[in-house]
Structures are given as C-alpha cells and as structure tokens.
Amino acid sequence: MKFSHKSLLLAAGLVASGAVLAKAPPEEIAKLGLEGTEYTPLGAIRAGTEDGKVPAWTPYTPHGEKLIKETPWLEDRYKDEKPLFTITKANMAEYADLLSEGHKQMLTRYDTYKMHVYPSHRDSAWPKPIYEATIKNASTAELEGGDPDKIRNATLGFPFPIPTSGAHPWWNHRLKWRGNDVVRFNNQAIVQQNGSHQITKLVEEVKFVYSNLDTPGSMNSGEDIFLYYLSETIAPPRNAGQLLLAWEHADYRDAWLYNPGLRRIRRAPSVAYDNPYEGTDGQQFYDQVDMVNGKLDRFTWKLVGRKPMITPNNSYKINSNTLKYEDILSPHHIDQELPRYEIHRMWVVEANNKPDVRHTFKKKVIYFDEDTWTATMLDNYDHRDQYYKFQEGHLVCLETMLTCSTVPEIIYDLQTGIYFATAMINEDKPNDFTVSYDEKHFQASQVKKRTTR
C-alpha cells in the first residue's frame, strides 16, 4: 500500500515526537483556511492530485449558507455520468494500490462482484460556523494524557483537522455536524447466501449536543455529552416495541434498554464494544454502528498516512426511492450495479487489540475520507490473523443541510458468506431535520412513560 510521501513524513514525525502529542504543529495549522490556503478548513488538501484522478475541492452549495430542514429526497446530480472503468476479478491487479483489502477480498471471492468507478467529485460542504470552529479547534483540542477516549478543549467543529494520532480521525467522524436534531428510518436486513432476508425497521431520534448550531457544545470534561439517542424497533412484530436509549459522554456511554416482554427499562452496560446490537443476531457489534462507534480503549491507534483510494462516494443511485430493498439485496453482496465508486484521498488508521483486553477483532484498518472525515471502509481481522469482516459505507452529501453521511452501510462476513445491511431508507422517508427535542425527551423516566401511552 503506497502513501503520499508528504503524508507519511507528517505522520512519522508526529508519532516520533511522542505518544501523548495531541495538538498539530503551528505551521500546519496555518495552512487551514476558507480560501487561498493549502488545506481546506477541515484539513483536506485543497488541490487535486498531479495525475488529475483526484480533483480539487469545489464545494457544492446551491443554497448558499441557508440550511433547508424540510429535506427532499436525495437528488442524483451525477446520474448522467458513465463509469470511467470497471474493476473485476480479472483486472483487479491493475488497481491493487487503490483498493482496500476488503474490496480485494470481495473481488477474489465472488465472480459476480464488480466495481464501477466514476469521475471523482470533491463537492462536500459544511456550514460556515463549522469551518470556523474547526480551525479554532486545531489549536486547542487534545486527548488528555494521550488517552484516546479523553477528548478535551473542542467546541462545535471537527476537533482535529490536522490529525496527529490514529484516534483523531475517529473523533472527527463521531463529532461531525449532522443537524441539530433528527429523526431517521434505519432499515436493516441479514442477508443469507441465497439472498433471503427479512427487513427490520428502526426509527431513530437524535439530539446532537456538541455539533449544534443553535447551542454549540464543547468537550471539556469526561461528563460532557455530545449526543442523545433513542431508537425504537417497529418491525418485525416479534421485535416491535424494543427501545434503546443512549447518552454519549466524552469518556463513556450511559445506556438503557426497554424490553416489551418484561415491560421495564433497565440500564445496559453491555451496549458497548463487540457485544451484538439488539436484533441483529450478532451480525453488527455496537462499535460498528455508524461504521465506527463507542470507546477506543481496547485498541492502540496508529495514524498510517493519507493516500488516494477507490471508495464509495456520491452514492445517490443506491438511495433512490424508486428502488425496493429486494432490488438492492442480492445473494452474496448488494447489487453492484447500484454503488458508485470514485478515487478520493483517504486517511488510513490501523487499530490493534491490546493483549490485556479481549475484542473479537484483533486488528482493524479504517479508511476516512479526507473531505468529510467519514469512515467509508473498514477491514476487520480475527485473532488467527484471518480476514473476517468488511464494512462498506456509501457516502452521500446533503446540500440542503450541508452535511455528509453513509447510507446504506454493509457488513460482509467473509467467513460465513452472510452480510448485514443497515441504514437503508429507500422504502420510507429521508431524514427529518425539522424536529426539536429537549433533553427531557431522552430521560429514562420519559421513555418508560412512552411505553405506557
């Protein structure tokens, strides 16, 4: 795997200067800016690559700085483009340096797997207050004592636009702007080798406390909360009525589960790490939700470098409301006529399980898009050093709210041939950003009252 010379020198110099180093060098911070600087406000390299495969950053803001909460369905503004090339098992060696190990595994294993690679567009855009706060955070945000879970002195924006630790991209992903409050459908399916599946439907309600434009939040102590989360399972009938409540603190998580059979809400410390998410039959761990999630303390985190890679991006076609889930969920893998792949620069992070604390995965390699700090690909290895699970998130950017996220997200189990699809929205509605929650909505006592209405 080849990395840019400049990025490798930067990463190596930061590591050599000490494991507890958290803040970026002033000369690197000075390169951040809204315009006319080497780096974008989020720390991406503003220019494209010399070979033209990765273009320059040109944010798409048809509505200016206005945020439109009444979000329409995602529009595929690149629907008339044709693939530049298609990768298959037969020609994958030509593109090996651009591929994640997970994509190599999928191409090798399945003759039906292919990747259509389209022209790249670096058009992600974020609200101006997020840009300004991110630039300020570059000089203040840190991991206290080098502890990857103890984020401090960050406000509103991405905390680490110039990463100096493997934990920094993870925090940028988790704390990115996604709207103040939101309701979204999260439809899931466990897909067997023959393509058979059953849809599980969840409705999620979230209040973002940290990345909130109305009341900007800060991470200054371990008690600070960066989001409140409440999900309800509405189908299938055997799981309907299950509730999961979580408060995400800077240093830890408070969680509660409501089981309709027991008719009580209880604290749930098991909502963490590699414990299976409720209703997924072990196909998704809690720290795989939203691609990466939860505490970092069971792994060491190494910032490897930044390099161009083929990654899911501008994935509007697969999110079309003209598609049914049966159109997407094929045997062995999703229908590969639907994803869109582009070449983008990605930050690569390697996480290794500490020997004194067990996790199902011995090693993770995580790929973060430089323009959005979104994890779009993960390679997961077991304790025999065998490839285990590949996570793929299909990135889209919403110009009406100036935010980006991965929908859907797929977890391929390369050892069983089963895969898990989550965050599908095709048969329901786009995210609803018009809602507004107060913190009382996410109190365990209020959730219990909700079940007795």
User: How many domains, as an integer?
Assistant: 1
Count the DSSP helices. 7
Mean pLDDT: 94
Residue runs with pLDDT of under 50 for 5 or more positions: 1-20
Structural class: alpha+beta
Question: How many E strands?
Answer: 19
> Radius of gyration from the CA trace?
21 Å
| Envelope shape | globular
Describe this structure in words.
This protein is an alpha+beta fold. It has one domain (about 5-80, about 120-300, about 315-360, about 395-450). Helix content is about 15%, strand content about 30%. It has 7 helices and 19 strands. The strands form 4 sheets. Strands 12-11-10-9-7-6-19-18-17-16-15-14-13 form a 13-stranded antiparallel β-sheet, sandwiched between helices. A two-stranded antiparallel sheet has the order 1-2. Strands 3-4 form a two-stranded antiparallel sheet. It is globular. It starts with a helix and ends with a helix. Mean pLDDT is about 95; it is low at about 1-20.
Offer a concise description of the structure:
The chain has 453 residues and is of the alpha+beta class.
List the SSEs and their pairings.
Layout: H1 5-16, H2 26-29, E1 85-87, H3 101-109, E2 115-117, H4 128-140, E3 142-143, E4 151-152, E5 154-155, H5 167-174, E6 181-191, E7 199-208, E8 218-219, E9 225-235, E10 243-249, E11 253-259, E12 264-267, E13 299-312, H6 325-328, E14 341-353, E15 363-369, E16 375-381, E17 387-398, E18 403-413, E19 419-424, H7 444-450
Antiparallel strand pairs: 1-2, 3-4, 5-8, 6-7, 6-19, 7-9, 9-10, 10-11, 11-12, 13-14, 14-15, 15-16, 16-17, 17-18, 18-19
